[in-house]
Amino acid sequence: MRNVLIARNGSMMVRRFGRASRPAATLLVAAALAGCNHGHNADVMATVNGKAIMKAEMDKAYQAQLGDAQQQQQPTAVQADSLRLNVLRQLIDEEIVEQRATKMNLTATNEEVDAKIAEMKAPYSDEQFNEKLKASNHTLDDVKHDIRRSLTFNKLISKEIDSKITVTDADVANYYNAHKSEFNLIENQYHLAQIQVTAIPSAQPGNLQNSKATNPAEAQKKIQALKNRLDSGEDFGALAMNFSERPETASSGGDIGFVSESQMKADPAIFNAIVKLKPGQVTEILPLLDEQSKKPMGYAIYKLISREPAGQRELSDPRVQQAIRQQLRDGRSQLLKSAYLEMLRDQAKVENFFAEQIFKNEAH
Hints:
56% of the residues lie in helices and 13% in strands. The chain is built from 16 helices and nine strands. The chain has a four-stranded antiparallel sheet, with helices on both faces. α9 (169-178) crosses α15 (318-347). The longest helix is centred in the last third of the chain and has 30 residues, at 318-347. The protein is globular, with a radius of gyration of 26 Å.
């Protein structure tokens, strides 16, 4: 990429001619940038192998990054340009990946995109879905575009990276032997899921239905309706995904992972309710207390998925093997993704006109 090459050439010249003064080095970079300033459409923010990324696309992604934050405090000019640079870098990376996938015939098909759209629309009526699009300032074409890129990226990573990762039994055993203490539970652990409803009007719910209680009466009414549906046999995970107001866990069916007994005892009411459960059972509606005022700020229903007694977990335990295997696979996958994307960047010809514009305006 051009900017990278400029930096590399600059550092090589400094090393070759010994110590360069700071003004001289600055002039060198400025001259290099000026020399590369050939004409281009002012609405083109960057190009990737000749493919333009337009100002409208960058602005739209920028507004999406700001989200509700822009209603609270406007960023300074420097902060705004810094965020735009980051957004543009992401768009450049996405274009690089998309071009690579196209070359390998791995672009998501219309059928795959339509299937994902149908899955997204399933919980809603057409009118509700269109209202959600309007509220998010997205068109259906915007959503299809984002889905196509996401599916395409997943197909490329699956082909180029995940299919090449192998975790052997020896790898699992070596990790276990080196980290045996990690599998020695010093106290009982409870694997829990939670459906949470709060009366905080400004909080983002993060659930599929975008369902949010905005006052105590609504919160109480909503949690009772959910408890009634659980009692009638509806799936806990599905209700959590659609209605729980805890964004970090709603997407995973309310799963909050393992909680130690000592952590649970910090709230005796919750501990006493959960400790009585058998795996698969749920609690009654429990109040969520504000840590400072100790007043109710919402409600929760917990499900006990499993109870793990204290003690050493052996390598022969299938759950231990699976956990290690997944951890090793995830770690290798992340490393290979980072290396792979760096390779694709190095192979691409990128011109970032927005970065050049900022440099010229700010480097006085």
